[in-house]
C-alpha cells in the first residue's frame, strides 16, 4: 500500500515557495517572479528508505492567517486542506526579517488552531535564498536555536536558485513525518529525489 503525505508549503510572498517545489520536482528554476495567486497541488512520488510515498504538496498563496476553523478553511479556496496537512514547510527569505515574522505568526497559529495533536505535527522552517548570504538579516545560529530549541521544529537553509539543500529539506521533513506519523522503525533514510510521471531524479 502506498502512503500519501500531504505537505502544506506556507510563507510570505516572494520567499521562494514555488521555486523550492519546482526545483524538487522538475529541477527547474525561473528568475522571473510570478506571484502565486491560487492554491496549486503537486503530486510527486518519492522513495524513502525503500518505501514509496505519494506526496500531495500544497503551494499556498499568501494567507493573512492560518484558518482557525474548518468552515473558515472551506470558505477560502486558497487554504483548502491546510488544516489537515500531515506536515508543514514554513519558508522565509534569509534577507527579509518580515518574512521571518510571518513564519513566526503562522507557526504560532498552527499550534493554537490545529485540531488534535498539534504538537505532533511536523513543521520544518526553511530559510531560502542562501546564495544571498551576505545580505542575511539575522544570524543563522540565533534563528536555528530559536526554531529547534524553543519551537521544537526542524530548521534547514537552502537555495532554490542553485538547488542547494532542496532535496535535503524534503528528506528532513519526511524523516520526521514518517517517524511520528507512521511509526516506522528505521535507522537510515534514503530519499532518491522526486519521481514524477516519466521522471525520475535519482540522487
Ligand atoms: P513564492 O511567492 O514564495 O512562491 O516565490 P517564488 O518561488 O515565486 O520566488 C520569488 C522570487 O524569488 C523569484 O524571482 C525567484 O526567482 C526568486 N528566488 C526564489 N528562490 C531563490 C533563491 O534561492 N535565491 C535567489 N537569489 N532568488 C530566489
Automatic annotation (TrEMBL):
The record's annotation in InterPro entries points to: P-loop_NTPase, Ras-like_GTPase_Reg, Small_GTP-bd, Small_GTPase
- What terms describe the molecular function in GO for this protein? GTP binding; GTPase activity
Q: Which Pfam families does the record cross-reference, listed alphabetically?
A: Ras (PF00071)
Q: Which UniProt keywords apply?
A: Nucleotide-binding
Among its keywords, does the record have Nucleotide-binding? yes
- Gene3D superfamilies, alphabetized: P-loop containing nucleotide triphosphate hydrolases (3.40.50.300)
What SMART domains does the annotation carry? RAB (SM00175), RAS (SM00173), RHO (SM00174)
Which PANTHER family does its entry note?
RAS LIKE FAMILY 10 MEMBER B (PTHR46350:SF2), RAS LIKE FAMILY 10 MEMBER B-RELATED (PTHR46350)
Q: What is the protein named?
A: RAS-like, family 10, member A
Organism, by scientific name, is Cynoglossus semilaevis (Tongue sole)
Amino acid at each position: 500500500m502506498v502512503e500519501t503525505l500531504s505537505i502544506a508549503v506556507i510563507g510570505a510572498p516572494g520567499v521562494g515557495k514555488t521555486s523550492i517545489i519546482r526545483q524538487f520536482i522538475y529541477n527547474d528554476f525561473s528568475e522571473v517572479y510570478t506571484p502565486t495567486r491560487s492554491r496549486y497541488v503537486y503530486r510527486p512520488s518519492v522513495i524513502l528508505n525503500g518505501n514509496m510515498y505519494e506526496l500531495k504538496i500544497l503551494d499556498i498563496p499568501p494567507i493573512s492567517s492560518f484558518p482557525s476553523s474548518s468552515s473558515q478553511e472551506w470558505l477560502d479556496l486558497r487554504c483548502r486542506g491546510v488544516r489537515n496537512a500531515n506536515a508543514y514547510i514554513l519558508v522565509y527569505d534569509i534577507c527579509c526579517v518580515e518574512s521571518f515574522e510571518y513564519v513566526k505568526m503562522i507557526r504560532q497559529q498552527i499550534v493554537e488552531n490545529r485540531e488534535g495533536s498539534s504538537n505532533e505535527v511536523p513543521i520544518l522552517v526553511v530559510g531560502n535564498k542562501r546564495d544571498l548570504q551576505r545580505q542575511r538579516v539575522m544570524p543563522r545560529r540565533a534563528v536555528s536555536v530559536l526554531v529547534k530549541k524553543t519551537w521544537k521544529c526542524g530548521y534547514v537553509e537552502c537555495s532554490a536558485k542553485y538547488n542547494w539543500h532542496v532535496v535535503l529539506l524534503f528528506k528532513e521533513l519526511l524523516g520526521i513525518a514518517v517517524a511520528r506519523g507512521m511509526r516506522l522503525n528505521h535507522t537510515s533514510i534514503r530519499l532518491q529525489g522526486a519521481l514524477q510521471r516519466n521522471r525520475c531524479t535519482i540522487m
